[in-house]
C-alpha cells in the first residue's frame, strides 16, 4: 500500500509540473499576441497571462498575509499587478505574472521528491522468528520475542533481535551495522545484532534486546531524528522580501507625492518587481545540476549544492566508498619447498570451489581473474563453520582456513613475521596445508579505488579537510588512511558514532559533507550538511538518505562537484548584484519619467534574460587543471 501511495504522489507531482509548463506556454504565446497585435481579439491577449499566472500569485500572497502575516516576494508582485491593471497597463501586468511563474516553476523543478529510506529500513527487520520452547520450534511474529527467549537462526536468515550465541558456529554479515567488508566468524558467547545476516551455519541465540531497543530500530530512529534536524535554506528573494516591499512602496509613494503622476509610481512598482532576483538562484542551481549530471552526480535536493559550497570537511566511509567494497587476494606466499606461489594459489582456489563463505568465493574469483590454469576438482569436500574447508585434490588432503582448522588436523603452523604485518594492516589470512604440512597462506583485503588517492589530494588543495569514519578495526583504518594521507581517523564506528561525529563538527561551526554507501551510513548521510551516496555499489537506503547520489561510483569527480558548488554560488551572487543594480537604475529612470510601465517591464524582463544566460554558462563549466 505504501509503495502504491508513493507512486501516486510521484505521478501527482509530475502532473503538477507538466500543468505549469502548459500554462506558461499558453501565457507566453498570449503575451506575444498582445505585444505584436498578431491576432485581432475583442480583449487584450495579456489577460490570459494575468488569469493563468497572475491570479495564483495574488491568492498566495493574500493567504500568506492573512494566515501568518508572511511577507514574501509575491506581495510586491501582487501590488504591481493590481496597480498596472488600475491604470490600464495590461501587458505590463501579464509580463510580470509570466516571469514570476517561470521562476516558481524553476524552483519546483529543483525540489527533491519524497523519499522512502525509512520504509526500507523498516523492511530490513524480519517479521518472524524461530523460537525454541520446551524442546519444540515455533514461528512467532518478531515483535512477540521477549528478553530471554531462545531463537534458532538458519543460514541466509536475518537476525531478528540483538542477543548472544549459545551454540553453533557461523559467519555473520554485519555490513548493515558496521559497514565492514569482511564477514565476521561467530561462535558461542559472541554477540549478534538485529538486521545482520547469517551467512551459513545454523545457531541458537538468547534474545537480549528486543523491539524498540534492538539495533535496527535504534538506527531507524537515528535516521528520523537526523532528517528532522536538517534546516532548509530559504530563497534570497523571500528572505529580503519585507525590505523590498517597504522600499518599493516608499519610493512609489514619494514619487507620486512629488510629481503627482500615478503612472510614474506604478512604473516604479513594475521595475522593482524582483523577477531577476527570483530567477537568480533557481536558474543557477538548475544549470549546476545539469553540469553535475554530466559528471555522474544525481542531485536529489534542490539546495544541496548551495549547502555543499559551505562545506569545510569531508567525512568518508571506507568500505565501498574509498575502497571497492569486495575482498580480493592481495598476496600469496609459499612456505614449503617444491610448492611455489602459483601452486599455493591454485590449491587454495581449488579447495574453496564449493565453499559458500564470502572469503572462499573471493579466493576463487581472484584466481579465475588472474590465472589461466584449470582448477582441480575437489573430492570429499567438507566445510567447518568458523574454521575453513577441506577436500581431497589429486589424492592429497588439502586444508584452507584458520590456525584452529590446521591444529585440529595435527598440522603445525609456523609463526611467520610477515603474517603479523598483514594482520596489522587489517587483512585476513587464510592458511593452506597439504596432507600433514603447511604450504603457505593467502592474504585477502579490500582494495583502494584507483582514483581515491588523487581525489583526497585534490580536496586538500581546495581547503577541504578529509576524515575517515569506518566500522573496521583501528589497524585496517589506519593502514588505509596512511595510503590516502588522511590525518583524522575514527575506527570501529557504529551508526550512532558517525552521527555524533557529524553533530560535533556542526557544533564547532564546520559544515560537513558525508560520503558513504552502506545502510549504516544512512543516519550520518541524513544529518550531514550534505550527504553523498555511492549510487552503484551503495544500498538503496543510503541513496534515499542522501542529498546527492554518485551514479557511477567514480569518487574522482568529487572535487569537481565541490568546486562547481562554489562556482554556482559566485554566479548566484553576480546575478543578485546585477539584478538589484538594474532595478535601482530603472527606478531612477522611472522617477524622472523616462520609463513608462510597458518599457519598464521590458527592461526588467531583459535583466531576467541576462540572468538566465549567465546561469547557463554553468552547464559546461569545469575548472582547468
What key attributes describe this structure?
23 helices, 19% strand, alpha+beta, 22 strands, 6-stranded antiparallel sheet, 625 residues, single chain
Which structural class matches the secondary elements?
alpha+beta
Strand content: 15-25%
Total strands: the figure is 22
Question: What is the alpha-carbon Rg in Å?
Answer: 32 Å
Number of helices: 23
On the 0 to 100 scale, the average pLDDT is 80
Largest sheet properties: 7 strands, mixed
**Strands ordered across the widest β-sheet:** 10-22-21-20-11-18-19
Helix content: 40-55%
Shape: elongated
Question: Could you tell me how far the N terminus lies from the C terminus, measured between alpha carbons in angstroms?
Answer: 51 Å
Which stretches are poorly predicted, pLDDT < 50 over at least 5 residues? 1-14, 110-122, 225-234
Provide a compact summary of the structure.
This protein is α+β, with helices and mostly antiparallel strands and 625 residues long. 50% of the residues lie in helices and 19% in strands. The chain is built from 23 helices and 22 strands.
Tell me what you see in this structure.
The structure is a single chain. This protein has 625 residues and is of the alpha+beta class. It is built from 23 helices and 22 strands. The strands form four sheets. Strands 10-22-21-20-11-18-19 form a seven-stranded mixed sheet, sandwiched between helices. It has a six-stranded antiparallel sheet with strand order 2-1-3-9-4-7, with no helix packed on it. α5 runs antiparallel to α6. The chain is elongated, with a radius of gyration of 32 Å.
